[in-house]
Each structure stands twice: as structure tokens, then as C-alpha cells.
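re: that chain from earlier
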Amino acid sequence: MTGLTSISPMDRAKGALLGLALGDALGTTVEFRERGSFEPLTGLCGGGPFNLKSGQWTDDTSMMLCLADSLLATGENDPDDQINRYVRWQQHGENSSTGSCFDIGSTVSKALQRYTITANPLAGSTDEWSAGNGSLMRIAPIALFHHAEPLPVLLDAAAVSSRTTHGEIRCIQACQLFCYYLQKLLCSQQTPDKQQLLFEFGREMTAEMADWHPDIKQLANGHLSEKSVDNIKGSGFVVESLEAALWCFLHSDSFEQGALMAANLGDDADTTAAIYGQLAGAYYGYSELPSNWLSQLFWYSHIENIAVMLVNFPAEQDILTFLKAARKGLSYLETEDKISDEKLELEFLTATANHDICIPGLNWLGWVERNGIRHMLPSERIGWIQKAGLGDCLAFFTATIQAKCFLRGVIILSIRHGVMNQLLNRIEYHLHDI
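^ sequence. v structure.
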């Protein structure tokens, strides 16, 4: 692939999250097995140490979804909310492909235990022997959510997110380097050459990396591309894990080819392939992911929607401006007793037209079905909204506006029954917490 290929940020975002999940689901089949001790994988087939169905994924994707949910629900990088979601995954199976936490790394487990005792969300160990890959394997949502922000904001967010479970400096810097790669892709009009992407840095990033740990800096010097596969290890050590993922990315010509390379390294195969999948998915884009793999992937459409919401999440100021306009559109209820449905809808849509917070590209019907919104009574919808996170509130508004094209009167009903007013109240509530 050359620099002549143009891929949209949305396509790259979907590729990153779905690529992570595909790599995870692919690699789990040979997880913990020594390279060369198994028949090489040729596609998704399930099984493995957890006897999963084809397309089911492990802790890598579960933790990625917990992190993504936190960013969308709070509208910010909140470590306390993130680690609480990891705890709920561990204890109750939230965001698990099987409904229970069947796979968790020792470093993560110890951090969650430490958090329950200390209440400090930055619970990751700083010990040099705790440099695992558990924060890197899930990091893509940070890059998607902060892709349009200045580099220092992105790098700080990556560090904070890593420190919830992995506080060792190499873990933190591996996450920062990886988010830098993803930001470069998400903000690129054209697809860069792989060598340029991985080994050419702008002045600001070069300055940031000046005092980094030598183990991480050496990954960025280009020498890994000259190594043979015999010197590449898909282990749980973050440096080796990142090196393996980058090596497979450099030595392959398609998402599928590189993912199979990464998984067939064995050992921590699911995570090596998940790390590879984030980068390669963003590089090649959603449209280049293997369709026969996607058709088997658990929660495929949900993960796709999560990616769309993260990369298109509106800025705080845009939401505030929208709220003012929407309140203006609803004010006619208070000033005119007999305003017609047509007049009320027109006034509301006119007031908000230039301050739209609809999420472009959202599969709103799929989101409605997943959340059970369609068959709720107005009172039930209000109850649902009162517990909803910010991202779901924005998705609810998107679905309401989009449904207008297929269901006449949906906007009027939401206004007349107080659903829209409650939605605006809930959005405003979340903004006060940011």
C-alpha cells in the first residue's frame, strides 16, 4: 500500500477496534502454546485454552470495550471510572464475550485488587518486573477519542489510562508511542509508507522521546525491521510484544497476512495479534479487513458503533452550543399553548440545525435494537435516559433525528412526552462533570 491511498478517519477508527478484536479472536486458539508446536492458523476457528467459539475474544477486547465505554460515558479520560469498569468486568463479566471473566493477566488482577484496598485509580505497579502488555493491548480507544487534540494531551491520556493497571515506565511509553502511530494515521489524508509511519517523528514527538527508556526508544530506531523472525517473540513482556506486532506489520502486505504472522508466533498469541490488529486495522482501514472473519466476530456491529462514536465524539463546546439552541427550540412549549406539531418540530429542528450533535456514521438502528429502545414507553425511555452516559445520550439524539425519515412524529412525541427535555437535562448533567 502506498501513500496514494486515502482512507477516512472513520474507516481507520473502525479498522482499529475491529482489528483488535479480530486479532484477539484469532490468536486465542494458540494462546500459551510454543511457536512451532501447532499447525499454523489459517483463520478464525475458536477453541484454545478457553474453548471459545469461533469469533469470541478474550480479555484484550473486553478491556478495550470497558475503556471505550468509560470515554463515551464520561466524555473525558477518567481513570476512576475506567478501573471501576475493569472491576465490574472481573467480578460480573461486563463486556465479556461469554458473560464471565475467564481470562485476566496477573498484573491487571493485582492492580484491581490494589484499587479495592486503596481507592487509588492509578493502581498499576511500577515494578520493573510488571512490564506486561495489558495496557497496550486495549489502548486504541484513547487514540480515537483524542485523535484531534494536541500531542501532549494524547500522550498524557495514554499515560493515565495505562497507569490504572500498568505503571511501569515501559508500559506507559509503549502506549504513548502506539497512540502516536494511531494519531498519525487518523490525521493523515493519505496512507503513509510503513517505514515513515513507524520511524519518522515530528519535532514535538522527538523532544518527548528524548528521555524515554532505551527499550522503547530502540523500537523506534528502525532496526527491528532488519531482524529475522527467529529473533521475534510474542511474549507478555511489553517490549517484546510491541516489537513482535510491529515486525509483523512491517513484513506483511495485508491485514490478514500480518494477523496470521502475529498469532502463529504462539505464546501470548492473542495479545500480539490484538496489538498488531489495532495498528494494521487503522492502516489498511475497515474495508480491507477479511469479511469472512468479520462475519464470525462476536459483537461485530456493536464494536463498529463504538469506534464511530469515539472518533466522532463532539467537542464539549459544541455540545454546550447545541444545548442552548435546543432549549430555544423547546421554549415554544412554554410560550404558546396551542402550537401545532408541525410548528413545534420545525422550530426545534431550525434552532438545532446549525448546532447538530448527531454522530455521523452511527448505525443508529443497530444501537436502538441493542439498547432495547424501540419498544419502550415514554416513561421507560425517561427512566433509561436518567441512567445513561453522555455517549449514549448523544446516540439517543442521533437515533431520534435519524428515525424522523422513517417514522413520522417521532420527534414530536419525544418533545410532547418530556423525553427530549429529560435528554437535554441529562446531557447538561454530564457536562457539569467534565
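Residues 316-433 form one domain.
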